[in-house]
Write a structure and sequence with these properties.
Distance between the termini: 40 Å
Order of helices and strands: HHEHHEEHHHHHEHEEEHEHEHH
Number of helices: 14
Oligomer: single chain
Radius of gyration: 28 Å
């Protein structure tokens, strides 16, 4: 971390402490999430940046926060499957078929919801869940002349996750994350087993009932219509009966305990929810520190660049804040020629990394930013920075990428499941202020590289897949860097200021205004 950035690191770490210790957990759509958003709006106002607040509705439990619902559905369906399989004709037999059908369709609907809302983060089922107001807050820093060609949006999310009980329980466990995978693996297998058994029994019963009904109404002619011999009917009825008996044993011993494991995944109690020091008060704090740096040092602003500090709400509810923002501003100036640096969890000093995509969301983020961020970390003195795809869930780069914005996610977090990720133990005392400061340093270097890239494109000197884009720094910054981290020999210093006669026309900025009613 450069010496000039230490004061910004101090303030950033102070924001992390305020968020985690004073405000506390900030679940999506909660009062504490709003308090933190207002706190950051006041911080922007204090340095002369006009904050914009955009409200939206979020269904906190419609996505990952609703995983326990799947467990309760499984338990309810298990009870329904304890009724014996239908084996004949009558009112009672019809009732059993109906109860087993209810169990099957409940499991089927839950699986569809899990895939669409929890895994793919679709908003299709949000209307069916209780909604709460959430908000995005952002503010801009313009060049001294007020003109800009492109926008760099530095973002983080204000909300925190529910406490993942299974992960939190590994804090003092010797097996690390292994018990978590075992518990959730048992839960998933139990639910899928229940779904398959309910399907087999329900459709088998339908075949039997159809046969008996036709035989009862049409006699032998009805039996011929079904195409089933008497022995086949007997075998089917006995098979369903045997499976039903097996379920009497497996449901209480395996299925219900497994589904109960799922109900314990995300504790709904806000008092035990994650304080979110790492995830993601660090991202919010670093984005603000970078914005303040340029506000206080306008001479170091890249020429023709607008900087936006974006405080995104409800990321933990399925990226709803970034989804709302990109949909709301589709086609508008704020997303045109925009670069998004999404900062998410800067705490583990041995795990600085580029997150280049979200596997479950089928997205790969901007390859140019992927390369430039790697170079920025190396320039900052980080050895062997990682480069990973987010294996589960998603991050706010995905909606920006889908909206056509160049985006990348910057993280410093152990990529394996830990006792502090999305748990009560995500506290500021766990990591160092210097790590947050290094995050600020990396982001500033990345912004310099984006500026150099934009300059090269404007001047017609950019060659795709060529040598790394050169860094853009003032003489003082280069001198400071030479003292702390060696500059790559292939990266000469260039100026961000083009000759006056080469300057391209710039768009006038769109004035931002507070919109509390949206």
């Amino acid at each position: 971390m450069r010496e000039e950035l230490k004061q910004y690191a101090d303030e950033a770490y102070g924001i992390v402490e305020t968020a985690a210790n004073d405000i506390g957990s900030r679940l999506p759509g909660s009062e504490n999430e709003r308090k933190f958003a207002d706190f950051m709006a006041d911080k922007l106002q204090a340095i002369g940046i006009k904050p914009v607040k955009e409200k939206f509705l979020v269904a906190p439990r419609a996505s990952i926060g609703g995983i326990p619902y799947a467990g309760w559905v499984g338990i309810g369906a298990s009870i329904l499957m304890l009724f014996p399989a239908a084996s004949g004709y009558g009112v009672a037999q019809g009732l059993f078929v109906g109860l087993h059908g209810l169990a099957f369709f409940a499991c089927l609907a839950t699986l569809i919801w899990l895939v669409c809302s929890v895994f793919l983060y679709k908003t299709w089922f949000d209307f069916a869940f209780k909604q709460q107001p959430s908000q995005n807050v952002y503010g801009e820093v313009l060049p001294e002349d007020g003109k800009y060609d492109y926008t760099i949006m530095v973002s983080g999310h204000t909300d925190t996750s529910w406490n993942w009980k299974h992960s939190a329980a590994t804090k003092n466990a010797k097996g690390g994350p292994v018990p978590v995978f075992i518990k959730m693996g048992i839960g998933i297998l139990a639910f899928l087993f229940l779904f398959i058994c309910s399907a087999v029994i329900f459709f088998g019963e339908l075949a039997l009932v159809t046969q008996f009904d036709l035989a009862y109404v049409l006699g032998e002619e009805g039996a011929e219509l079904t195409g089933m011999e008497e022995k086949e009917l007997y075998d089917l009825a006995m098979g369903l009966s045997d499976l039903s008996v097996a379920l009497y044993i497996l449901i209480p011993l395996f299925v219900i305990p497994g589904c109960f494991m799922i109900t314990m995944w995300a504790d709904k109690n806000p008092r035990t929810a994650s304080p979110g020091a790492m995830d993601n008060a660090t991202g919010i704090a670093i984005a603000y520190a970078v914005t303040k740096y340029y506000k206080e040092n306008p001479d170091k602003m890249p020429k023709g660049c607008r900087i936006i500090d974006f405080n995104c709400g409800s990321e933990e509810a399925g990226l709803r804040g970034s989804i709302d923002f990109t949909r709301r501003h589709a086609g508008e100036d704020i997303l045109k020629n925009c670069w998004n640096i999404n900062i998410d969890s800067i705490a583990d000093k041995d795990h600085f990394q580029v997150v280049h995509g979200d596997v479950w969301q089928f997205t790969h983020f901007d390859p140019t930013l992927e390369k430039l961020l790697t170079e920025s970390m190396i320039d900052a003195g980080i050895e062997n920075p990682g480069n990973i795809a987010n294996p589960v869930g998603g991050c706010d780069s995905t909606p920006f990428t889908k909206a056509g914005v160049k985006s990348i996610t910057f993280a410093a977090q152990n990529p394996t499941l830990t006792h502090y990720y999305h748990t009560f133990y995500d506290v500021p005392e766990r990591f160092e202020k210097e790590t947050v400061g290094m995050g600020i340093d990396v982001v500033l270097r990345l912004i310099d590289k984006i500026a150099a890239h934009e300059e090269a494109v404007k001047n017609g000197t950019y060659v795709p897949d060529s040598a790394p884009v050169t860094d853009v720094k003032t003489a003082d910054a280069v001198a400071e860097q030479s003292d702390e981290a060696p500059v790559a020999e292939t990266a000469p210093v260039v100026s961000t200021a083009p000759a006056a006669e080469d300057a391209a026309p710039m768009e006038m900025p769109v004035e931002l205004s507070v919109d509390d009613e949206k």
